[in-house]
Amino acid sequence: MNRNPLSLRHSPRRLRRHPAMRGMLQENQLSPADFILPIFLVEGEGIRSEIVSMPGVFRHTVDSALRLCEEALVKGISGVLLFGVIEESCKDACGSASWDRDGLVQKAIRAIRAAYPALLVIADACFCEYTDHGHCGVLTADGDRDDNATLENLQRQVLSYAEAGVHVVAPSGMVDGMVSAIREALDAGCHTEVSILSYAVKYASAFYGPFRDAADSAPQFGDRRAYQMDPANRREAFRELDLDIAEGCDMVMVKPAMPYLDMVRDLRERCDLPVLTYQVSGEYSLLQAAARAGWLDLQRSVLESLLGMKRAGADAIITYYALDAAEWLG
Ligand code: PBG
Fold first, then answer.
1. What phi, psi does 125 have (nearest 5°)?
2. Taking CA atoms, which of 7, 72, 149, 165 is between 20 and 30 Å from 286?
3. What is the pLDDT of residues 94-151, one digit of tens each?
């Protein structure tokens, strides 16, 4: 007689044998509605140019961005996050091109709202793509960031986005008081319906490398460690979170995603606001590079990385893989 030598009272594998059992008991799911697609905008018409350090991601003129928005909508993606990339000659020391009523992002917001009203339009609110020195705001004579002057400009910028019809503004400059300044400006301008997605917990990360190439926003000197968070810190994030909540933000974000999933979980447990996470450019490129070298299965590794963010507690994910992932899930 061939008897099982071991009587297993507890066997987690019993629940993994049948595919229907696995499907029924799956704890987290991905859906296209979880995704927000970042879009890099450039002036002009009919242009779509690939970003060298982010193969598969393009800079788009507004007409080309509209086609991308249509694809996003058809695939069930919730929204787009807009970044403007302007000519060097249009940049200045304070980034004033960013609050031009007929600026690139403002034009794109109007066009997308008109053509695809079902799509959520989110605009990144920062200055590094618009300043000639590449820092996220106005600088003092000795090269430090002048936060008061930066906040005033941020108010101008978000008002111009709100007037164009943006649904959500996403301040990413890690300026103390940015959420209050924005809420105040929006409410005073009668834009109480515009919500604020704060990059509450944004680390000074090497994973932004390809973005700075894409958005032409690398600092000309120094780095961003005087305003973005130290990757070593956890407690400090709770302080950032509490302040942003007190200042009236509607949603919070952890950025980057994959090296900071513990922070996504922490924020999820500490607050009742929606928590988003941003799978940044470097996370995109490293998966892309390994897949192109034949070292990783792109579809499986991307979906696994996104599912990990959901499991960590993210309500939504900003990802350059939004269109691909929605296609794979479809
Ligand atoms: C602008 C901004 C950055 C990113 C989003 N908004 C760059 C930075 O802080 O240097 C990075 C996004 C990415 O890497 O995909 N402040």
1. -110, 100
2. 72
3. 999 999 999 999 999 999 999 999 999 999 999 999 999 999 999 999 888 999 999 9
* Cβ of 172 less than 6 Å from ligand 1: yes
Inter-residue contact 286 to 212 (CB < 8 Å): no
| Domains in the chain with CATH codes | 29-329 (3.20.20.70)
Residue 91 known to be catalytic: no
Give the rounded percent of residues in the chain with a pLDDT score beyond 90. 91
Of 75, 91, 107, 202, the active-site residue reads 202
75 is catalytic: no
253 within ligand 1 shell (Cβ under 6 A): no
Of 150, 178, 217, which is best to mutate to test ligand 1, by the most ligand atoms within 8 angstroms of its C-beta? 217
CA 153 to ligand 1 center in whole angstroms: 19
Instruction: Say if ligand 1 is within 6 A of residue 130 CB.
Output: no
Catalytic residue among 91, 107, 255, 310: 255
pLDDT band at 9 (very low <50, low <70, confident <90, very high): confident
Residue nearest to atom 7 of ligand 1 (CA): 208
Burial class (CB in 10 A: 0-12, 13-18, 19+), 156: middle
What is the mean predicted confidence (pLDDT) over 204-214? 93
pLDDT of residue 3: 63
Helix, strand, or coil (residue 302): helix
pLDDT at residue number 69? 98
CA 329 – CA 184 distance, rounded (Å): 40
Q: Give the Å distances, CA to CA, from 201 to 71, 190, 260, 277.
A: 30, 28, 10, 10
